[in-house]
Amino acid sequence: MCIGIICLVAVAFSGCVGTDQNKLVSPTPPPTPIQTPIPVGQYVFTEEQNGTTVYLNLTNTITLKLKENPSTGYSWALTTTNGLKGTGDFFVSSDTTGRLSGAGGTHYWNMIAAGTGVQKISGVYQRSWEPLTGNETRFDMTIVVV
């Protein structure tokens, strides 16, 4: 009798053991990065940081990205204090086909924090041959290097 009860219980619970194939969920794939990862100690700044103050360590690297359209004559006249050393700059057109006349893009400036204290980045978006009127777009940022 005891064996019969054990067999009955085993048969009753045999349907509860196992995997329900309808409830299996395929694993979520990892997210795909949409931009190049930024190395540790490198900071990327854009128009969003205009007018802000940031704190960095000595030897941190900085990339400033500002929209620009040199094909129309407009470009950034950028200046920095002595504690920020430029390591290069380049322009990337937003037209990946190379067929659009007058396409803008993004200007990149790479620099390193080479001196402690209050450092500044200032820029005026202008045509170099036109006099300044005071209505130009500006970029100003303070960087405190410790």
Describe the structure.
- This protein has a domain at 39-94 and 105-146: Immunoglobulin-like, CATH 2.60.40.
- It has 1 helix and 8 strands, in the order H-E-E-E-E-E-E-E-E.
- The protein starts with a helix and ends with a strand.
- Helices cover 8% and strands 42% of the residues.
- It has 146 residues and is mostly beta strands.
- The model is unreliable at 4-13 and 16-26 (pLDDT under 50).
- The radius of gyration is 30 Å and the shape is globular.
Features:
146 residues, 8% helix
Short description:
By secondary structure, this protein is mainly β. The chain has one helix at 2-13; strands at residues 42-45, 53-56, 61-68, 74-80, 84-93, 105-113, 117-127, 137-145.
Helix content: under 10%
Radius of gyration: 30 Å
Strand proportion: 35-45%
Trace the largest sheet across and list its strands: 1-3-6-5
List the helices and strands and how they pair.
Elements: H1 2-13, E1 42-45, E2 53-56, E3 61-68, E4 74-80, E5 84-93, E6 105-113, E7 117-127, E8 137-145
Parallel strand pairs: 1-3, 2-8
Antiparallel strand pairs: 3-6, 4-7, 5-6, 7-8
